[in-house]
Amino acid sequence: EKLVNPVFEITYDNNEIRTMRTEKGVGFFRQDFDFKKFPFDTQKIIISLSTGVSNIENVTFLTPDAGAINSARKFIKENKLKAWEIKNIEIKNRVVESEKWDLYDKKIVPRTQNYLDIEITIKREWKHYAFKVMLPIFLILCVAWYVLWIPTYKYEPRLNTSIIALLALIAYNFVFQDDIPKLEYLTDLDWFILLSYIFCCIPVFSSIAFSKFISKNQKKVDKINKFIKIWGGLLYCLISIQIFFYK
Fold it and tell me: What pTM was computed for the model?
């Protein structure tokens, strides 16, 4: 954090002495987020300010001025976090109790310190990911799944169409990969993409399998194909809902 032009003022008004220190500059803060619900995630930014003074018996409190509340409301209204929607800002006081080794008395003594926490709740703007990532993936999968409506004995056009759709999905993955955070765990969007890959492979595998058994039992192949195209599509929708809303 870089601060410049500090100003320290002492004022006396209504039999009260007040001190004010003003710092101006640009601050940089880092905080770990949980992206498991990405891109429909809500995060909380916490900025903690302390007095820097540890007391044994009393606590030196930080008290937010009314101007801080007004500044928070203005921050919400202006919303300079373009990719996020600011849902709420709270300013809270908390007292932390700990222990400290006293070098002079040679013993452990309790101490307390006051913190002023600024909690900013933000929600990600998800429309970019919904319309530019999830919707194209869903449309490519629909093309692959539409193969199941082609007669089973026409296995060559079924196989060609389903393979092209699978390759299109793989190619499109390289287009949006920079928009997805690279993490050691899978986000909801990662699970959705993985699910789409699996269901995009089903028409390919079914077309290959049907090509071997089509001459032996046409009716049984048609029955299996009908079962896959109806219940498979329903299963895909249910799992997708489970991923984003009930996981």
Answer: 0.76
